[in-house]
Model the fold of this input.
Amino acid sequence: DPEMKGFAPLYDDFLSFYHRNAFMRIIECLTRPLARAPGAVLHIVEREFSNAGWVCKYTGKILKNVVNLGSYNYLGISENKGKSTKVVIEAAKKYGVGICSPRREVGNLDIHSELEQVVAEYLDVEASISFGMGFATNVMTIPSLVDKDCLVLGDEHNHASIATGCKLSNATIRRFKHNNMEDLEKKLCDGIAYGQPRTHRPWKKILIVVEGVYSMEGSITNLAGIVALKKKYKAYLYIDEAHSMGALGKRARGVTDYFGIDAKEVDVIMGTFSKFFPGQGGFIAGSRAIIEHLRADSAIASYATSMSAPVCQQAISVFNMLSSTEEGKKKTKQLAKNCRMFRQGLKKAGFIVYGNDDSPIVPVMIFYPSKMLGFSREMLERGFAVVVAGYPATPVLGSRVRFCLSATLTDKQIQDALSAIIDVGDLVQMTYLKGK
Ligand code: PMP
Done:
């Protein structure tokens, strides 16, 4: 149906009907044009579909404004109404936008060093290094840390960028069950007696790789359990804090802050500038030795263009706001309040909601891939842009709506969104908990 009409409640034969790739592409067509500030009003743009390969073309005609409940603008800064915008413009005037060189050649500006110092101070670690892309930060850092003689233990729900980095490293890779410490310990013991401290070294290094907040599950890593195991078995720990830094903890410094654990217990902290901060790029923070090693060894430091200066300035301003101003505290508190209100409303209505109450990611289970598109489209009809995710980002029968909340959402927008979700949930026959 080129106009995407009449799809609503009848998708049960959808998967058998379409090739999987075509199916995934349709979902992308619905979600991709919506990526702007959550909480802010969005412009939904008319699209044209060609039957051959489902290529979509944007005609640019604005059809209606909707509220964005799907992108990563957790603190609501990407609306660009804040004070940071002025200094970002100043940075563009001073440095220009493009860098045109990697860090190891002539792409090294004072603003990069300033950003790296700000990150290290914010996290209370020795040093940090920034890169032009978050995804590539994981992909290229992990192979710099481990090789074929090492063991990498990754949570089964780790992000695609982590999985790709692990594969590229040529290390032996084992996945442990999500947040399951028993399974992690079993896998740590590969080659040594179960439950015994590591007395010999079947592996040159063991690296445990997890996320702070899991991007599809909304769950928070079991940091205390992992730190205890890493010490017992003399392993190293790498945490991707893309969705946790800026949201979790009294000072919004991520999972270490949330659990009151010293950030130095984590050997490698990875983060992105594309979510809370919100610009583009990634960073690694940790000991000076690790950061200097990455500066010299990592392919991304040698071969990829460094971060744009205005984007560095944007991240610096947001780090400063978070660490030293009332505005920062207000935004993180508002985000936490919005998350709780939204989750409680969903649970009260009987939806199956995954993840931790403090997570800004709120996955609501749809289960059947055949219901994804209907949910997304019907929400759009009611004025809300949502992201639905399915296989291969989730198990085949683990399709879900992945809400990402923002500090800028008002109580009314949240209540209206809940009413719309309840309405659409009934329409597409979502699975509810008993008692509904
Ligand atoms: N890590 C995680 C956990 C992510 O969710 C993402 C992207 N959503 C990335 C890394 C990649 O970051 P970026 O989009 O900034 O490249």
Notes: Residues 133-135, 138, 159, 161, 211, 215, 240, 242-243, 272, 274, 282 surround 4'-deoxy-4'-aminopyridoxal-5'-phosphate (CB under 6 Å). The longest helix spans residues 326-348. The two ends are 34 Å apart (CA to CA). The first strand starts at residue 41 and ends at 49.
